[in-house]
Structure formats: C-alpha cells, structure tokens
From TrEMBL:
Residues 652-671 are annotated as: Disordered. SMART domains: SEL1. It comes from the Bacteria. It comes from Rouxiella aceris. Transmembrane segments: none annotated. Residues 11-275 form the DUF4034 domain. Gene3D superfamilies: Tetratricopeptide repeat domain. This is DUF4034 domain-containing protein.
Length: 671
C-alpha cells in the first residue's frame, strides 16, 4: 500500500486540528513520532507538522491559535504535543513583541518585559511536555532555542541550582510601575494574565542532569541528543545560535562541526553543516582582497564544492560565491564562470537578485562579452520560470528587441511584461523591483541599447510604476545618469511623466514637478500650480520644499505673497537649526532686504543677514560679494549707516543664533 506523502500528512493534521478532534490528532501524532524519533523513515513529516505555522493558516490570529491549543490542552491535559505547541506559540509571541511593529533600533523596556513574560509561559509549557513523554526531543530543542535567544527565566535557574524560586512580585519590585503595566498589556491583549507562580521542583528526568557551570544551550542540546541521537535539526539550531546573527561566526561553527559533538553525524550531514556556516560567512561583509580570510573562505568553498552536496545547497553556495570570487580576483570573468557552474547544476538552477545584477553589470556595463552565454542562460530561465519579477521584465525587454542571445518576439515580450507587473503587485514589491530595474536599464544604456532602456522604463511606467515615470522625467530632459540621444528629448513628455508620478503620491516627483512648472518646462510657466506642488511636497514631508516655495513666491508671486515669504516663511526656516536649507534661506532673505523684494529695502538688515550667512558658511562667495557691495565704498557705508538709524541698530539675527554663536560686530567695527 502506497504511503501518504508529506503534504497528505500535513493536510490530515490540519484537518484534525480544524475539526477539533484532539484525541484523534494526539494519537495520530504519537504514531508519526515513533518513526521520526527512531530515524527510520526518511520522508517522515512529523518534524514539519510539529509547528504552529504548519498546523494553522496564516489568517488565523495568535488569539485564535492560543484558544484552540488551550482547548486541546483542556481535553487532553497529559498531551505531550499540545504542551510543545503551546511552548512554540508563546516563544513566537515573545519574538513578535521583541521585534515590535516598526523597525526601531532599540527595544523598549516594556517590550523586553512582555517578551520575557511570554517566555515564562513557553518554559512552563515545555517543562510540562518533558513530564509527559520519555523522549521529548522537540521540548528539549525548543528550550535550547529559547535559551539562546532570551536566556533562561530566573525561576528555572533557581530550580537547577536547587533553590525554591520566589514569586515574581518578590523577585522584582515592578508590579506597580509603568513598565510593568505596558509589558503586561501584551499578555492582556492575548486574553491572559502574566504567570506568577512557578514549579517547586524540576521534572524527574531533569533532576541532577546539569553539569556545574554548563551553559543553557549546551545543556539543552545534550538533552536533545540524548533522546534522539545525531539529531540534525537540533544541531542545526545549535549551530545557528553560533552564527553571526547571534554574535558568533563561521569559525565557531566550524570548530563545533569538527568537535566530538558532531562525531555521530555522517560526512554528508557534516558537509551540510559546513555549507550553512560558509553561507553565513559569504553573505556577511566580504573579506578584503588578498587577505588570509579571503584565502581561507576560497579554500573552504573549493573543499565543499568537491564533495557531494544537495543541489539546492550547491546552488546557494555558488550564488553567493560568484560576486565574492569576482572581487577577490578583481576579475568579472571569474565571477561569471562561477555562475556558469551554477547553471550547470540543474536546468532549473537560478541565482538570486544580486547575482543577476552582477551578471548584467559585468556583461553589459563592463563589456565582458565572453560572458554573454551566462546572461543568455539567465534570461532563458527567467522566461521559462517567470517567477522573479525583475528578471521577467528584463527578459521581456531583451525579447522585444532580440538582444543578448534571445530571439525577437514582441508578443512574448508583452506577455512577460504583464507577468512581471502581476508578480510585483502580488509580492508587494513594486517599488523595490522598480529600483532594481533602473540598475538594469542603466546597464543596457551603457551597452548602447538605449531603445531597450527606453522601452523597459516606458512599459513599467505605463503599467503604473511611479519610480519609472519619475525616472523618465529626467530621461526626456537629458538629465539622466547617462547622456540621452537628442531623439529622445521631449519636454512635453517629461512634464507628463513627472505630473503622473506626482499625482501618484511620489514625494520627490512633487518637488521636481513644482520646479519644472516654475521653470516653464514646455515653454509655459505655471506659478499657481508650482506653488501647489511645493505645498503638497512640504505637507508630504519633503525637507526642502518649503524653502523653494518661499523663493518661488519672491521670484514670481504677488506683493502679498512676497511679503509673507520675507516676514514669515524664510524666518521660520532660518529659525530651524536642523533645516537643510537654512543657509540658503538666510542668503535669500538677505538679498530680499538688499533689493527691497517683499519688503522696504534696508541695507543694514541685509548686511546683518549676510554676516549671519558667513557665520553659517565662512566660504560663501555670494555672501562675501554682497558684503563688499554693502560696505565697499564711502557712499555704500553712508547708506548702511542711514538704514541702521532707521531701525535703531536692532539686531535682526539674534533670534536665529545659538547661544554660543558670535554676535554681530559692534558699531566701530562696522564703520
């Protein structure tokens, strides 16, 4: 009778959980566990099934998952599996809290506390799981992972030391603090209160098993390996905790792999461990050329590639190695040869994004024409697989013109471009992929394929890529990264593109659109629209748009608008010491007073502002020239003196200075 495959077993487990047949699920998982524990079934899905992300759908919330597992625990209180899964769920929630909703660099104290409170529940669950099965591999392994990421709770350390742990409120006097309230709120959101009472002794299986001063992750690994010998998953997790992400490096991992800890693993398994360590090294900061480190990594790579490896592992190594080899040998051709070897692994072998960008740069931008076959292989596979939006769009462009070893097929090109755009939307990667495609467009332009460059950008813009619409604005104006042939220059097209990007909410396009309308792109100045776009850019967070709006008002606005720029807008910018246009605003305001734009002319105030400009930038030649004009002759100094008397010598720049900034020169110095 044919055995069910992994997907069938996963589907069965999901169905039993969804229909809440917990006794049946527990019984079935125990039957699956036997073969996995004894390592007699190579295709056993038990290890994959034993995770909340496998058993639940992505749409099911943490609260729903917790409710389901607690219901399972209520019906089967002695279930090893439900306690393991609860521990994993609580561990994952600790990471969710630790990571937070944003990408802040520092974790707040309340986040740490909330994560630790989740870890308390995770450890309690794993401890119960250990009590209910003689070979609790998953519980031991996940205790190791938790200890590596968050450390052991104080109460568990006390139990191992033979001490009765104190309740939480006695150990830490924080229950009435703001941090406690904020940290505990993470658990209240899940419908539970923080645990406060701990076991008074360890399970029998853990009694007297820990060596003096044994690190937590070493202990839990030893326990996992004692019940499931040469357990690959446990060792992979242990090695990962010694990777660069956790403050280790590949040297530590190699030492472990070559130590007695890995003696029971096969050569193939140890090679896989070495490959993982080398992948960790290759995707980190690249070693300096001609350094001992670079030589060591190349030797390790050569040694591994000479061994039997899983195709996916070989492809991953070659994918990262290509750009490294090119750098270490200072030779693009050496890197291209690595990717040629990658393509030879299997007909489906594909490199990642950075390798693809390297191949494009080497062959097109750096004219390594002997590597054209590598680029052709890349694009052919991109067409056959059509799963990567960047490569699919690249291939569509090449097919449209019959470039880079591909036949000319405009119909296929259009289908591929549609597919690329569909993938970008499905993967929510429109902006990032669009930026990568700009790099490819640049490479094609350097290879004198300007028509193809234009085609790629216009087809992406036509489908809705704001990034490409904005880029075409510069392309049509011959303000792109490279010189654009005159046949492409078109102010009307440029204005249409920047307006399209601005209307789509692209903030840099709003600013550029305002500048273009102010300049009269297309032979027509549109002051009103320019001012609107400057304001929209300012409201959207553009750092400099408010200054340029004020300067536009001084150039083209009504007397009322010019007066507002002089009296309100420019002073507000100068008062902001962090504003990127503070220096420009001070000079512009000085010139307004000097020329009487938006205000009555006053040379003394203009002189003060120009002195202030020189405080901000002593090398400013325009400010130095203005000072010479204001005090360079007897007539100029007399006018300066007269204007000073009109304002009674008031210091109009005092409000803009830092307390430690120098004051204006006194009257004698001015004279």
């Amino acid at each position: 009778m044919q055995q069910p495959d992994k997907q069938d077993n996963i589907a069965k487990a999901q169905m039993l959980l969804a229909t809440r047949r917990f006794f049946k699920l527990d019984e079935w998982l125990l039957s699956q566990m036997r073969g996995w524990q004894n390592q007699t079934e190579t295709d056993n899905a038990y290890g994959l099934i034993m995770h909340p992300d496998t058993l639940f759908t992505k749409e099911e919330s943490a609260i729903h998952r917790l409710e389901t597992l607690l219901n399972w625990e209520q019906q089967c209180p002695d279930s090893y599996h439900v306690h393991c899964l609860l521990g994993m769920l609580w561990h994952e929630q600790a990471w969710v809290i630790r990571r937070g909703k944003g990408q802040q660099q520092e974790v707040e104290d309340a986040q740490w506390l909330g994560a630790q409170l989740c870890c308390d529940y995770a450890v309690l669950s794993f401890i119960r799981a250990i009590e209910y099965h003689p070979r609790p591999t998953h519980a031991f392994r996940h205790m190791m992972n938790l200890a590596g990421g968050f450390g052991e709770p104080y109460w568990l350390r006390d139990l191992f030391a033979g001490r009765a742990p104190k309740p939480l409120h006695e150990q830490f006097n924080i229950e009435n603090s703001l941090v406690w309230q904020q940290g505990a709120a993470y658990l209240y959101d899940l419908g539970v209160v923080p645990a406060s009472q701990w076991p008074q002794q360890l399970p029998d299986v853990l009694q007297q098993t820990r060596r003096d001063d044994e690190e937590a992750i070493d202990y839990w690994l030893r326990m996992a390996m004692s019940v499931r010998h040469h357990d690959v998953g446990s060792m992979e997790s242990y090695l990962l905790l010694h990777s660069s992400y956790w403050g280790g490096d590949d040297e530590q991992q190699y030492q472990i792999i070559d130590s007695p800890l890995c003696a029971e693993f096969s050569d193939d398994e140890r090679n896989q461990f070495r490959a993982n360590a080398l992948l960790d090294a290759l995707q980190g900061e690249i070693a300096d050329r001609d350094s001992p480190r670079a030589s060591q990594l190349q030797q390790r790579l050569a040694d591994l590639l000479s061994q039997p490896l899983e195709p996916a592992t070989r492809i991953a190594l070659l994918d990262l190695a290509g750009t490294c080899i090119a750098y270490w040998h200072d030779d693009d051709h050496a890197g291209l040869q690595v990717y040629s070897e990658l393509f030879a692994v299997s007909p489906q072998a594909m490199p990642g994004k950075f390798a693809a960008l390297f191949i494009s740069r080497a062959v097109l931008a750096n004219a390594q024409q002997e590597g054209l076959s590598v680029l052709t292989s890349l694009l052919v596979r991109a067409i056959n697989q059509a799963s990567d939006p960047m490569l699919t769009a690249f291939a569509a462009t090449a097919v449209h013109y019959g470039l880079y070893g591909l036949p000319c097929d405009p119909e296929l090109s259009n289908r591929l471009m549609d597919r690329a755009w569909q993938l970008m939307q499905q993967q929510r990667s429109t902006e990032s992929v669009s930026k990568d495609l700009l790099l490819l467009a640049h490479d094609m332009a350097l290879n004198d394929d300007m028509e193809a460059t234009h085609y790629l950008m216009t087809e992406m813009a036509r489908r809705g890529s704001v990034v490409h619409s904005y880029e075409l604005f510069f392309f049509y104006r011959d303000a792109w990264h490279l010189d654009v042939p005159p046949s492409f220059h078109n102010d009307s097209n440029a204005l249409d593109c920047v307006l399209s990007a601005a209307r789509s909410g692209w903030v840099p396009a709003m600013f550029s659109c305002a500048n273009a309308l102010r300049e009269g792109l297309g032979d027509q100045v549109d002051y009103a629209q320019a001012m609107q776009w400057y304001q929209r850019a300012t409201d959207a967070g553009h750092a400099s748009a408010d200054y340029w709006r004020a300067s536009c008002a001084l150039d083209l606005g009504s007397e009322l608008e010019k007066r507002q720029a002089v009296e309100q807008d420019l002073p507000a910018i100068i008062a902001n010491v962090d504003h990127p246009e503070r220096f420009a605003a001070a000079y512009t305001l000085g010139m307004a007073w000097m020329q009487g734009v938006g205000t009555k002319k006053n040379r003394y105030i203009a002189w003060q502002m120009m002195k202030f400009v020189l405080e901000l930038n002593p090398e400013s030649e325009p400010a130095q020239l203005a000072i010479r004009q204001l005090e360079g002759s007897l007539r100029a100094r007399m006018s300066l003196w007269q204007d000073k008397r009109k304002v009674e010598g008031a210091d109009f720049t005092a409000a803009y200075r830092q307390p430690s900034s120098p004051s204006l020169p006194d009257e004698e110095e001015m004279e």
